[in-house]
């Protein structure tokens, strides 16, 4: 059997129809999206490839990005190292501690869109110019965010990411070149990768006070070598402070009893007739899209408000909504779930544990 890859067009062996492979799963399974944009988990043994994807597209895009940045490096060498026909020995920028140079990537919630988007900033708190190229890597390849030169001691809005982009993306790749005096100083290309963990973008404690923005921000330090693990610069220090506060709180709680507030349980009915007045003229894909938007909003509100559980009433039907919800819980929110009480909901509801 030929190796199945993302982008392959396939046909079902045990059923009518087919679609495009959009995701490779463990245990020899894949996700196939049909012409109505419904996604199905299928065993590889139950499909046959009818048209191979253009495998070189993603690789070619990545190659172009690297060649683009490398060409910039060569241009800097050609234009900045030649003085009166003599090559100057290649120097390096040494970011000394007393300079307190910082180069950061930050996410800010877009309050104009109520948690449905995030503004992305680059912060150059240093005396160097920065040429940068930023791309977003998703399941289907790369998407350019911005390319520009950032002046010393400035910050710039480089783009905006929707909640859907956050949920469906793997990482942000930032390629940068730092330089000051063009005639004598440049730096090799710096590449940093920020792993995107969707649930962190909907947790209040992820966004912290900082000296660069009026709003709380989710910040990554790009000059550190250990980037790419999905941890912001706040992690270790605030963890220690939090543990210290916890110790103080434990001592106080030993003197008097405080009744703990029970976490809230949120219940939402996702039957389409509960969400809109009429479905006339809507396709199955459009109906599912409305239901999933309500699902995502409910999950976001539950996480932000630190709810205990969420009951999602989806009904039995053909199982498409249930399957789509559970796939999202596993891969985007990474939260445990189980069938809700049979006595109360029958087979038509899922209970999600938040806290």
List the helices and strands and how they pair.
Layout: E1 9-12, E2 18-25, E3 29-33, E4 39-43, E5 47-51, H1 56-80, E6 82-83, E7 86-87, E8 102-109, E9 117-125, E10 129-138, E11 141-150, E12 154-162, H2 163-168, E13 169-179, E14 190-195, E15 218-221, H3 235-253, E16 265-269, H4 272-275, H5 284-304, E17 309-313, H6 320-333, E18 337-339, H7 342-345, E19 349-353
Parallel strand pairs: 16-17
Antiparallel strand pairs: 1-2, 1-5, 2-3, 3-4, 6-7, 8-9, 8-15, 9-12, 10-11, 10-13, 13-14, 17-19, 18-19
Helix pairs in contact: 5-6
What does this 3D model show about the protein?
Helix 5 (about 285-305) packs across helix 6. The chain is globular, with a radius of gyration of 25 Å. By secondary structure, the chain is of the alpha+beta class. It has helices at about 55-80, 165-170, 235-255, 270-275, 285-305, 320-335, 340-345, and strands spanning about 10, 20-25, 30-35, 40-45, 45-50, 80-85, 85, 100-110, 115-125, 130-140, 140-150, 155-160, 170-180, 190-195, 220, 265-270, 310-315, 335-340, 350-355. The protein is built from seven helices and 19 strands.
What labels would you give this structure?
355 residues, 26% helix, alpha+beta, 3 domains, 33% strand, four-stranded antiparallel beta sheet, Ribosomal Protein S8, Chain: A, domain 1, 19 strands, SH3 type barrels, five-stranded antiparallel beta sheet, Immunoglobulin-like
Fraction in beta strands: 25-35%
The CATH architecture designation of the largest domain is: Sandwich
Q: Detail the poorly predicted runs.
A: 79-99, 225-236, 249-259
Query: Which series of helices and strands comes N to C?
Result: EEEEEHEEEEEEEHEEEHEHHEHEHE
Instruction: State the separation between the terminal residues, measured CA to CA.
Output: 44 Å
Roughly how many Å is the radius of gyration? 25 Å
**Major sheet: order of its strands?**
4-3-2-1-5
Helix content: 25-40%
Q: Can you identify the CATH class of the largest domain?
A: Mainly Beta
């Amino acid at each position: 059997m030929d190796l199945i890859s993302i982008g392959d067009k396939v046909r079902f062996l045990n059923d009518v129809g087919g679609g495009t492979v959009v995701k490779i799963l463990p245990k020899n399974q894949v996700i196939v999206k049909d012409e109505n944009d419904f996604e199905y988990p299928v065993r590889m043994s139950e499909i046959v490839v009818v048209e191979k994807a253009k495998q070189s597209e993603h690789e070619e895009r990545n190659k172009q990005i690297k060649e683009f940045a490398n060409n910039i490096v060569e241009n800097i060498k050609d234009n900045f190292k030649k003085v009166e026909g003599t090559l100057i020995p290649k120097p390096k920028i040494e970011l000394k501690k007393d300079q307190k140079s910082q180069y950061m990537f930050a996410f800010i919630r877009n309050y104009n869109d109520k948690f449905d988007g995030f503004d992305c900033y680059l912060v150059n708190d240093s005396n160097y110019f920065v040429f940068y190229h930023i791309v977003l890597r998703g399941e289907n390849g790369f998407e350019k965010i911005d390319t520009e030169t950032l002046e010393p001691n400035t910050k710039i809005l480089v783009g905006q990411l929707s909640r859907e982009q956050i949920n469906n993306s793997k990482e942000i790749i930032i390629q940068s070149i730092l330089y000051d005096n063009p005639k004598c100083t440049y730096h090799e290309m710096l590449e940093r990768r920020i792993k995107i963990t969707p649930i962190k973008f909907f947790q209040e404690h992820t966004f912290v006070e900082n000296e660069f923005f009026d709003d709380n921000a989710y910040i990554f330090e790009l000059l550190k070598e250990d980037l790419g693990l999905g941890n912001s610069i706040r992690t270790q220090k605030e963890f220690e402070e939090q543990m210290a506060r916890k110790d103080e709180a434990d001592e106080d709680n030993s003197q008097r009893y405080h009744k703990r507030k029970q976490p809230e349980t949120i219940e939402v009915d996702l039957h389409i007739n509960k969400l809109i007045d009429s479905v006339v003229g809507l396709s199955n894909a459009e109906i599912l899209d409305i239901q999933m938007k309500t699902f995502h909003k409910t999950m976001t509100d539950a996480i932000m408000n630190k709810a205990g559980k969420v009951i999602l009433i989806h009904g039995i039907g053909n199982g498409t909504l249930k399957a789509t919800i559970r796939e999202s819980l596993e891969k985007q929110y990474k939260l445990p779930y189980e069938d809700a009480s049979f006595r109360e909901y029958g087979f038509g509801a899922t209970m999600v544990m938040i806290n």
